[in-house]
Every structure is written in C-alpha cells, then in structure tokens.
Amino acid sequence: MLTIVFINIFTPVFSMCSFSENCTMPPYICNPPYKLDPQIPPFKSDWKSSPACPMFEGLDVCCNSDQNYAMQYKFSLLDSTFGSQVGGCDICAANLKLLWCYFTCAPNQADFVAAGPQAIVPSPIDGHLMPIFLNNFTVTNSLACELYNSCQKCPYVTEVSAMQSPQGFLQFQGYEGIPIGLLWTTFYFDDGPNSLSLKFASCQENITNAYGYTVKPCSCNNCEYLCAGDYYISQPSTLHGVDWELIGYFYLGLFIITIIVVFVQWRLKKKQQRQEENSPLRVLQDIE
Predict the structure, then answer these.
(1) How far apart, in whole angstroms, are the C-alpha atoms of residue 45 and residue 22?
(2) Which residues fall within 8 angstroms of residue 69, CB to CB, at 6 or more apart?
(3) Do residues 84 and 164 both lie within one domain?
(4) S-S: 139 plus which of 68, 75, 143, 215, CB 3.0-4.6 Å?
C-alpha cells in the first residue's frame, strides 16, 4: 500500500496567527474564538493529547491544546458524515481534516485567514441566538476543485443541493461550523500568492494512510474515478427534448410485430385454402 506524505516548509519569521480559542468544558465545548490583536507568531504546540493534526506535530503552530481537543471531536464528526462508516470515502474525510488543520494550526495562518468581529446570529439548528466569530478563509480554485472531486460522490454530498459545486461545497462547510465551533467561515477563491494551496489525495488512490490518518481505499460507490468504463451508463441522446434512441427502438419493435402478424395471416389463409380444397363439397363439385 502507498502512504502519502506531504511536507510543507514555512518561513517562521514571516508567519503570523489570526485567532485563538479557549475551551472551558473539555473535551470540545469552547467559548467563541477571539482575534489575536496584535497578531502573534506561532508557538510550540502544547497538546495534552494525541495531535488532531499529525502533519504539524513538533512544529510551531497557531493552535493551542484546547483547539486540539475541539478538532479531535469535530474530526470524528467528519468521519461519521463523509467517511466509510456511512458509505462515504475516507480520503474525502482526510482531505477535509487537512483543510481545517491548516485553517486552525498552520504557522502562516494569517496569510489566508482573516479574523473578523464577533456577532450574534440565530442557530441553524433551533434558531436561538448565539455568539459566533466571523472570519474569511481564502483558498485557491485548484484547492476547491481537488477537494470537491474527492467528496462529490459521498452520499451526504449527493443529497444536499447546496454542495453541488466546489464553491458551494466549501461555503456549506463554513456555515456548518456555526453550531459546533461557533465559527462562521466565509470562503474566498483566489489564486494569489497568499491564498492557501494544498495538494489533496485523490479518492482513486489505493492508500491506507493520508497525512497521518488511517483510511480505507474508496470504491466506485463513493468515487466516480474508480468506476470501470464497462459499467458507465451514458444518458440517452436527446435533441430538443426528443429521445431518438427510444423512438428508434419503438419503430423497430413495431416493424417486427407487423412482419409476425402478416406471416401469421398468410399461414392462416394458406391453411384455409387447403381445407377448402379437401372438403367433400369441393370434391363432389369436381366430380360433377
């Protein structure tokens, strides 16, 4: 099996953090995040448990132990929403974890995450007012497309109309953070030098480890790139709403039925003629 390893090299002197978070009720219930003002440089991780983002282990990061706890819980939700345990693709879930790890922990977080103000908004679950933290997350277009390609055939994605495009998929993820992370993340798509650009694993790769997460290989059920061509069923060819293939089959069937009917009628007529020729009345007439 192939193990994917991604190594990112940062320049710490230019790296800055945008926001932080404290949790008062472990392991995952946190207060609204807050903006780091003035911005501070990344710091040595002090994670009191296994890292939610193994790709950053041992590095200076922008996430604290509280955020590590919170991400562990949120990542379990990603597995139960997009992963193989619900008929989805583990590589999709791993790619989403990588995205949120960079959003929360990357030492150059301030390059692509702009922390905004706090706001009071209705909960998307029951409508009660809740304090949240607004922020912007700028990513490249290729990042959005690669991530969406690995997730688009997961059952949850196929059932939600808002997630039928790369941009819609990410905006939906940003809105879903309101009830759990008290974050409303708005995605921006730009190919500038400061936008986050990541190389994601493809759902068709036969791997068991992605970025330090154990994964199961995906299948045709949740990754269209694994579906053999022999099993691909194309849509009927149509012109101005007319299905010519279906019409062709109809007339072919009608032609065959017509031939059968004509043949049966001919056979019946021949049989009737023979019966008439062999009837006693016809024989008597011939004698006379």
Answers:
(1) 14
(2) 23, 26, 27, 28, 49, 52
(3) yes
(4) 143
State the pTM of this model. Answer: 0.72
Q: How far apart are CA 72 and CA 87, in angstroms?
A: 21
Same domain (yes/no): 133, 34: yes
In terms of DSSP H, where are the helices of the chain? 65-82, 90-105, 141-151, 155-159, 166-181, 244-277, 280-287
127-141 pLDDT, tens digit per residue, is 889 888 899 999 999
Q: Whole-angstrom Cα distance, residue 190 to residue 176?
A: 22
Q: Which tokens is 194 given?
A: 């400061």
Non-local (6+) Cβ contacts of 153 within 8 A are 89, 203, 221, 222, 223, 224
**Token output for 35:** 């903006």
Distance of CA 135 to the CA centre of its chain: 23
Domains held by the chain: number: 2
The mean predicted confidence, pLDDT, of the chain is 81
Torsion over CA: 63, 68, 72, 73 (sign): negative
218 and 267 share one domain: no
Name the residue range of residue 271's domain. Answer: 239-287
Question: Do residues 172 and 247 share a domain?
Answer: no
